[in-house]
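ok here's the first one, seq then struct tokens
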Amino acid sequence: MNEYQSISELITDVDDYIEFYNHRRFHETLAYKKPMDVYQESIKLNQKKRRLLRMFYIRNFKKLSEVFG
């Protein structure tokens, strides 16, 4: 266990560990991917989903407005 001379040393170590854990450590439960990589992939997928939904609604707006008035 580390003994810290100041709160800032402790904060630095905690920050370093969080960075390691989320950006450099592979996680078994994430199919041996890093959490930040999984997060960034999910953002890209969500952006693609929104884009596809927007295209669908734009292309089908007339049909939808006729059905739902």
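and now the second one, same deal
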Amino acid sequence: MSTPEFKQRIGIYPSIEPEQFKESLAGKVALVTGSGRGIGKHIAYALAKSGASVTITGRTKNQVDETTEELSKSFPSVKVIGFIGDVCKRSDLERLVEEVTTKLGPIDILINNAGTNTFMPFHITDADEWWKQMEINVKAPIELTRIVLPSMQERNSGIIIFTSSRAAGADLPWASGYSCAKTAITRFGGVLQTELNTLQEVTFGF
């Protein structure tokens, strides 16, 4: 019996190829937290390519500035703004939403992507560091959602997405804080969607 041959796939699956969504989000306003680099940056890129106005956020100014400039040059017909702030500060979240609304309009798409992880055995993890993961990965997206949601409810329209992880459903060693946080935010999103399902056209994802 011959051994099956497996070929490595390099590239994007057709169903999520950004090109097919080009201009599909024209006129929409998107806010992506933690989008100065990494996953958040690529999400923002895909949204801009789809025609949405995008806000790039983060704590590191040069990353936010570089990504904002890069997207503005790549998609000149799309409005892209940058915001420097700390998602753990309620005042920064309120200022963020106010600035986005003033410069771009009401938020149609909220991507709660900002997050952190400390890979370390629980018994040697500093208590403040452990709880900081809960604050950034759980409290921050919940509080930002609390601020943005009322406007979406008024308009009976909106999309809210939380970046989760397989850590929400697996016992990953050295990631107790991260696993607890991702489990919590996943359950929060599910409960919130259930609460609003029969009343609102506000969509949640993970």
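notes on #2: The chain has one domain: 23-205. The two ends are 42 Å apart (CA to CA).
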